[in-house]
Specification:
The structure holds 2 protein chains of 2 kinds. By secondary structure, chain A is an all-alpha fold. Helix content of chain A is 76%, strand content 1%. A two-stranded antiparallel ribbon of chain A has the order 1-2. The N terminus of chain B is likely disordered. The chains are: A mainly alpha, B mainly alpha. At the A-B interface, helix 6, helix 12 and helix 14 of A face helix 8, helix 14 and helix 16 of B.
Chain lengths: 317, 328
């Protein structure tokens, strides 16, 4: 009986993050005597979307095996956000151009990362970190010339709700489902996981290792750019520090969501559980009138703690 | 020319001169950044001759102390094949403690700083025992350091105890403090890590952990020792930063994460195999520091500072890759 439960849970690593999110939600409910509980969840879903978007990209890189990681996400988000909003310049006329410019920056940044990793053979960790700082400094330079507001259409899109649920959350939940299907059914997805389990074996089996890895880094950068554009629209403009938390958060939602940090396995659904969990923890601490300092401490400890526990479980099996 | 090189290599291999080759590689490892540093200093002196004095050097190298100690902290972590993405916020935390507790309740302040060093050793133990990726653990820790810094000092301000700024304003005879401290730190680090038997063991953990374990050394103790060393260097770096800034700020250290990693790599360190040199690391820290000064001499906006630092890192690693190709 317990063996069955165990097997069921092992096949669904995302259950933990949703379970933890549920508990935090209920604790928050107790703290506010149940007022506005559904609204809390909807708001959490809104913020969770930004974590989940970058999380999808980070999940793909981490699933592609040891050493693969994208640390340029904050830089890409900030630069793409600034340029996209700058092109819009507060009007709907520049909406398409702005979004296109942001996405192109994402593509260029991803190509740059791939060049460093595959062309110059720089370890991804250090290559993407250095590249991220280059993008960040481009954003700093750009920010001197631009203090634009996002296009009103994009702003209303970023806050729009359907049946009480944020529209962008629904869109990216659909994307997550597609990624999930791709990982288990498509040649690309199976290749990513195979490379993550054993890159050498994957190469010997004739898989297109370089092309697959290149695509993974491109996808991660484009998703970071999209997150940067949407976050800028949602916050009423880009800010130089808007990406700061996303370096850790992008990795945290992947790890907390049940994706193995060792690669070769992915848990797309878990991204959402973890993203909602991390956001609800902040809400809970806010409700308890805890300051920003303690919020950071608790978030950091949760991430280290869950990682230590999850790794232990992996080793046991 | 290529034929000569191949012949020479073949002769070297035939003569069993692998050791000589290794020694030459080690010399190049420190020699290249040292040459780069000489070039940078020459350019700066040519453009700004006044920098070539006791006072000029003191100004030019103002923030050397936090930079070299932060780089040393990063080097200790990279030596075991790990990376520390939380050293910047850690410096901020030390800065905030030094600007508050250390002045108001000195005993408490010192205990807090000692606890931070212990926390670093604990982080090393956790990473080792649970076999966790250092990148995620140190990133998680960066949130903890930042949070604690905000708890200690919610908004910039505070004041360090009087002796701290005085210590870092000290003007030794003949040689400016940044230069003197760099030479001493490089010499001490070089001696401890390269010329003591435990230093060899510590470096071996990054290169050949199994060999070290078979020889009866504790990998756990070694990693904890290196992380404690990193924590202690980070504390000194944070104190130096406080001495120079004479105030506390929970975000002041952020830039040191990138510059410390870049210093180790530019100074000849590598991510795989525990290859680091304290001397090279100190030189690397100077290069990263002077790159900033060179920017301002060339009238380039400091907006591009991050690009230049990241760019130097990419260029150095790229050149190294090209070198490997031509050698292969």
């Amino acid at each position: 009986m317990t063996g069955n439960v165990r097997a069921w849970l092992d096949a669904r690593p995302w259950v933990w993050s949703f379970g933890a999110a549920l508990i935090v939600w209920l604790v928050t409910a107790l703290a506010v005597q149940g007022r506005g509980m559904l609204e809390t969840l909807a708001v959490a879903l809104q913020f969770a979307t930004f974590y989940a978007i970058v999380g999808i990209g980070q999940m793909l890189t981490i699933a592609a095996g040891p050493g693969n990681i994208d640390l340029s996400i904050p830089g890409v988000m900030t630069f793409a956000g600034y340029v996209a909003i700058g092109m819009m310049n507060g009007g709907n006329a520049g909406l398409a151009a702005g979004i296109a410019a942001g996405v192109v920056i994402g593509l260029a940044a991803g190509a740059f990362n791939v060049g460093l990793i595959q062309g110059l053979r720089i370890p991804p960790m250090i290559g993407t970190l250095a590249a991220g700082f280059v993008f960040q400094s481009m954003a700093i330079a750009y920010s001197r010339t631009s203090h634009a507001a996002p296009a009103p259409l994009l702003v209303s899109f970023s806050v729009a709700r359907v049946l009480g649920l944020p529209v962008i959350a629904l869109i990216f939940i659909v994307l997550t489902v597609l990624v999930s299907v791709a990982l288990s059914r498509s040649v690309f997805g199976r290749s990513v996981l195979a490379i993550g389990q054993n890159a050498r074996a994957a190469r010997l089996a004739g898989l297109a290792v370089r092309r697959t890895l290149g695509f993974v880094y491109l996808a991660s950068a484009v998703l970071a750019a999209v997150a940067g554009i949407l976050l800028s629209a949602y916050s009423g403009g880009a800010a130089l520090d808007m990406g700061t938390d996303y370096l850790l958060m992008s990795i945290a939602v992947v790890v907390l969501g049940g994706t193995s940090i060792a690669g070769g396995q992915a848990s797309p659904a878990g991204l959402w559980g973890a993203a909602i969990l991390l956001d609800l923890v902040v809400t809970m601490l806010n409700v308890m009138r805890v300051g920003a300092g303690l919020r950071y401490v608790v978030t950091g400890l949760i991430i280290i703690g869950v990682l230590a526990l999850a790794k232990g479980r992996e080793q046991a099996t | 020319m290529p034929a000569d090189v191949t012949a020479e290599m073949a002769a070297g291999i035939a003569a069993g001169a692998g050791e000589r080759g290794a020694r030459r590689a080690a010399a190049l490892r420190v020699g290249l950044p040292a040459a780069a540093l000489v070039v940078m200093l020459s350019v700066i002196f040519a453009m700004q001759p006044r920098a070539m004095s006791y006072f000029g050097l003191s100004v030019l190298l103002n923030f050397t102390l936090p930079a070299i100690f932060a780089a040393m902290a990063q080097m200790a972590v990279i030596a075991v094949g790990d990376i520390d993405l939380g050293i910047g916020p850690f410096l901020s935390l030390v800065n905030c403690i030094a600007a508050t507790l250390l002045a108001t309740r000195p005993l408490f302040g010192w205990l807090a700083l000692a606890a931070l060093v212990a926390a670093y050793a604990g982080m090393g133990a956790l990473i080792h025992v649970r076999r966790l990726p250092s990148i995620v653990v140190t990133l998680g820790a960066s949130f903890v350091w930042l949070g604690l810094a905000l708890l200690v000092l919610p908004s910039p301000g505070g004041a360090p105890p009087g002796w701290l700024p005085a210590l870092f304003a000290w003007q030794p005879p003949f040689v400016p403090l940044p230069v003197l401290a760099s030479i001493l730190l490089a010499a001490l680090g070089q001696f401890l890590l390269m010329h003591t038997s435990y230093g060899v063991v510590l470096r071996g953990i990054g290169g050949h952990p199994r060999a070290i374990a078979r020889a009866g050394w504790s990998l756990l103790a070694g990693r904890m020792a290196l992380y404690a060393l990193a924590g202690a260097s980070g504390v000194i770096a944070g104190l130096a930063l406080t001495g120079l800034n004479t105030a506390g700020d929970a975000t002041v250290g952020a830039q040191y994460t990138l510059t410390s990693i870049a210093a180790v790599i530019v100074g000849g360190g590598e991510f795989v195999g525990g290859i680091v040199t304290p001397l090279g690391t100190v030189i690397g820290a100077w290069i990263m520091l002077l790159a900033g000064s060179l920017l301002s001499f060339l009238n380039i906006s400091t907006d591009w500072q991050l690009s230049v630092q990241g760019g130097i890192l990419i260029v150095v690693l790229g050149l190294r890759a090209l070198n490997r190709w031509s050698a292969a």
